[in-house]
Amino acid sequence: MAPALPFDEAGGALIVGITASYGLVKYGGFLPDKEDEPGKAPPPIPGPRVLIVGSSGGVGHVAVQLAKKCLGASFVVGVCSSKNTAFARQIGCDEVLEYDKVEMAKLAGLKPEWKESFDLIYDMIGSDEFYHPLAPLLLRPGAPYVTAAAPVDGARANPVSLLSLVSAVATFAYRTVLGARPFRFVAVDNSEWPRIAGWINEGKVCPVRVR
Ligand SMILES: NC(=O)c1ccc[n+]([C@@H]2O[C@H](COP(=O)([O-])OP(=O)(O)OC[C@H]3O[C@@H](n4cnc5c(N)ncnc54)[C@H](OP(=O)(O)O)[C@@H]3O)[C@@H](O)[C@H]2O)c1
Question: Which CATH number is 99's domain given?
Answer without folding.
Answer: 3.40.50.720
